[in-house]
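Input structure tokens:
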């Protein structure tokens, strides 16, 4: 059903709905969705919340993930996912788009766009994908100040602090930073680019009572683990940030190659979403029915008295 009228819209703030999904019991599985259609398909598969990756956003725009997009551009994607799916969205806030005041502006903008949660990270610009080398870390107290600013600015947004320190400062450094960020107001911690099950378990053991997020990105430093395996290691959330975009990009690459090779799409039709499947996904007929239900405008009669 299209989210066009008040009766169709979720009534609770997105942050409250994100918390409810997180508290539902099993580990919260957050598949990445890079546009509105991906959000619909993830919802239809049965997921209760979504992740919006900075890497997926920038790649879909033909740009590298170096922190060069703007708050307004991210809000465009947040609105797509929230409107299309009706689900709470965890949005990638990169480094917060500046210092404390910029972080506060980002938090309010993301909330207004429909986000339920955000994570910000302790890298310096130009930031990098968390699974790449030579990341530059911010001073831990500077990052804590950003977390504190975000906590002050939010109305309902769930706040996750990401630390990229494990690769350069080890588990001790990452844990020390994480504890500082929790003290500053973070609701949860995202330890990025852990490389073994032992590291995941060690980090969780040293952060008792704190909800943790795991990143199951492909082609990175983390080995493949399932959601249940992450839960057993002490994690409350897991994201698959760029998976949907990677699958879509690979399929598009094959499509364009086939058109160039074969002179048409006839050899790819069995790989395509049909027109009927597309219309069902975007609820075309529900929109048409809603349009037909709207009463024709009648102009008021103007009294001549």
């Amino acid at each position: 059903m299209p989210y066009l009228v008040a009766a169709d819209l979720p009534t609770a703030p997105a942050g409250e709905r994100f918390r409810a999904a997180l508290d539902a019991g099993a580990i919260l599985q957050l598949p990445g969705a890079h546009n509105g259609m991906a959000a619909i398909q993830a919802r239809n598969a049965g997921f209760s919340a979504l992740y919006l990756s900075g890497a997926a956003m920038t790649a879909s725009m033909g740009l590298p993930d170096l922190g060069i997009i703007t708050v307004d551009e991210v809000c465009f994607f947040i609105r797509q996912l929230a409107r299309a799916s009706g689900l709470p969205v965890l949005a990638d806030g990169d480094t917060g788009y500046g210092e404390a005041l910029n972080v506060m502006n980002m938090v309010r903008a993301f909330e207004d766009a429909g986000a339920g949660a955000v994570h910000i990270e302790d890298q310096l610009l130009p930031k990098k994908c968390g699974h790449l080398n030579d990341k530059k870390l911010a001073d831990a107290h500077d990052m804590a100040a950003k977390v504190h600013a975000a906590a002050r600015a939010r109305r309902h947004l769930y706040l996750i602090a990401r630390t990229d320190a494990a690769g350069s400062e080890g588990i001790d450094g990452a844990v020390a930073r994480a504890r500082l960020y929790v003290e500053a107001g973070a609701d949860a911690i995202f330890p990025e680019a852990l490389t073994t099950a032992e590291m995941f378990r060690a980090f969780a053991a040293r952060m008792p009572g704190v909800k943790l997020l795991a990143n199951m990105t492909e082609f990175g430093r983390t080995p493949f683990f399932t959601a249940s395996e992450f839960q057993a290691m002490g994690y409350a959330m897991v994201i698959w940030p760029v998976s949907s975009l990677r699958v879509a990009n690979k399929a598009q690459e094959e499509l364009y190659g086939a058109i160039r090779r074969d002179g048409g799409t006839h050899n790819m039709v069995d790989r395509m979403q049909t027109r009927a499947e597309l219309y069902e996904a975007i609820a075309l007929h529900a929109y048409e029915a809603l349009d037909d239900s709207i009463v024709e405008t009648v102009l008021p009669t103007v009294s001549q008295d």
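The chain has a mean pLDDT of 92. The longest strand covers residues 158-163.
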